[in-house]
Specification:
Length: about 400
């Protein structure tokens, strides 16, 4: 897994910098190529010579090296790397990263890097706990950078608490887990549907539901991060104008969703139906807005096709099909019936409550597998749930 991986190791000026020599060694020993970039003050703690001897590459500090006349191209460095790891990341560098400041090569490289970025803060405990530092860390996380949290123990100041840079072995494991997860769905074609469907009664009224589509979007993101080729088919949601790094098709009604979804499913390895498809549609859609009058209005509804059940009937031997179920009574029993009747490999069961279900940011689910096993998640943000669900699918369905 490590062979040929390109690691850009950024070292900033903190006492923990000496541990980064060991970190560089761990990466090299595993088979990775390591390019070190030091901030000017990191040179007070570690020498470029020991790092270049270990990595077999020159160590860069400045954009321009006056002695050799060499220009170190930060854009090239940022494009070269598979991941960038900034360890230790001092309070000073964290603040600059969070605010787009760019007064050294490491920061210029950080700003131009397109690869995933990990940062391992190291500082005194009170500095670490300061709201300014915590806000900077949260800001970096909101940019999609990955925090490798500081650890608790004796600090250079003589105090004891949280602020030590994570041990090199722990940083190494973090990156290893990231690479492992990233490749777990490599070369798999994943097809997901999500959101509600709208069944129009007339040009302005429809039958619909409150499904946000969030779970489907997070499942798609997570599959993409793990290396899958993803297609997401979404009913009407707030994601209409969002740009995603995978294919997204927008549909409105159940019939449209079926039309788009069915052909795509033919050559998909894993299909997940999380859409809250309307079970019925009006038999007639009026061309003009229905006028009110003195009488009651009867709208005749006809049954929509069940997309999941249709796919279950056509399921190929090596294809994995996963459905969702929202139950209010006899939940496990009803979900298991669905699992069998619709011929699916797993059913994700959720129950509507204040904290779970349709339009909440959190959810708690149970997954029922064909082999009779069940797994239950914690109540977590839907983003985290998506990662948990993929871990479960991979483990229990032997993907
Ligand atoms: O039978 P029930 O609607 O409870 O089953 C829910 C599962 O079936 C979900 O995975 C949902 O996406 C799917 N479904 C479907 N087409 C329908 C209704 C539900 O694909 N018309």
């Amino acid at each position: 897994m490590w062979a040929g991986k390109k690691i850009l190791l950024g070292i900033t000026g903190g006492i923990a910098a000496y541990k980064s020599i060991h970190l560089a060694r761990l990466f090299v020993k595993a088979g990775a190529e390591v390019q070190v970039v030091l901030t000017p003050s990191a040179r007070d703690f570690v020498t470029p010579l020991s790092l270049s001897a270990l990595t077999g590459r020159p160590v860069y500090t400045d954009t321009f090296e006056p002695e050799s006349g060499q220009w170190n191209n930060h854009v090239e460095l940022g494009l070269w790397a598979d991941v960038m790891v900034i360890a230790p990341a001092t309070a000073n560098t964290l603040s600059k990263m969070a605010n787009g400041l760019c007064d050294n090569l490491l920061l210029a490289t950080y700003l131009s890097a397109r690869c995933p970025i990990f940062f391992a803060p190291a500082m005194d405990l009170d500095m670490y706990a300061h709201p300014a530092v915590q806000q900077n860390i949260a800001r970096l996380q909101s940019f999609g950078n990955y925090l490798i949290d500081a650890e608790v123990g004796p600090l250079a100041s003589g105090l004891e608490g949280k602020g030590r840079m994570a041990e090199p072995e722990h940083i190494f494991q973090h990156i290893e887990q990231f690479f492992a997860a990233k490749s777990s769905l490599a070369k798999k074609k994943v097809l997901i549907n999500g959101g509600p469907t709208y069944e129009y009664i007339d040009p302005v009224r429809f039958i619909g539901n409150h499904s946000s589509g969030d779970t489907a979007v997070f499942l798609a993101w997570e599959a993409h991060k793990r290396g899958a080729e993803v297609t997401l088919v979404l009913g009407p949601t707030r994601y209409k104008n969002d740009i995603f790094p995978f294919t997204v098709k927008h549909v409105t009604s159940a019939l449209e969703m079926l039309d788009v979804f069915l052909p795509l499913s033919a050559d998909s390895d894993i299909v997940i139906c999380s859409a809250a498809v309307a079970d019925y549609r009006p038999k007639v859609t009026f061309q003009q807005k229905i006028k009110k009058n003195e009488q009651n209005l009867l709208i005749e509804l006809e049954k929509n096709p069940d997309i999941l059940a249709t796919l279950g009937k056509r399921k190929k031997e090596n294809q994995v099909l996963i459905g969702f179920a929202l139950e209010t009574e006899n939940q496990i029993e009803n979900a298991r019936k669905k699992l069998i009747n619709k011929n699916v490999d797993a059913i994700v069961l959720n129950s509507p409550s204040q904290a779970t279900g349709f339009s909440t940011p959190t959810n708690q689910v149970s997954v029922l597998f064909k082999d009779g096993t069940t797994a239950t998640s914690q109540l977590v943000l839907k983003e985290k749930l998506a990662s948990w669900l993929w871990d479960m699918f991979l483990k229990s369905l032997h993907l």
